[in-house]
Design a protein that fits this description.
Elements lengths: L4 H9 L15 H9 L3 H11 L10 H14 L4 H13 L5 H16 L1
Amino acid sequence: MHSTLTEHARCLYGDEYRPTPECGLEHGERYFVEELTFADADSILAMLRELCPHLVDGHLPVWIRNLSYRLVLLQRPDEPALLREAAENLWMHGPDWDHIAEDLKKQADALEAG
């Protein structure tokens, strides 16, 4: 088993910034998605920030990024900075999700105004 979610993602998808380590473990995407589904917000954010530090980079598939942000926001729905970060990710990989990104931005604005 991988020691962190980031390590598992790196083995499965690669890393734009450093070599993928040799690993003899099974790397089925379903195992990673299961681990991601039950990961805490800090682990998910660590993975996103290490493997995709500039939103437009990294090798994580867009659907994994979107799922990751969704899972983080379910755990931390009241953090305007995270809502905006998730919105930026959706805008970057849209336009299919632009309306959702706009809703996230409005939620962040409302939290800050509230």
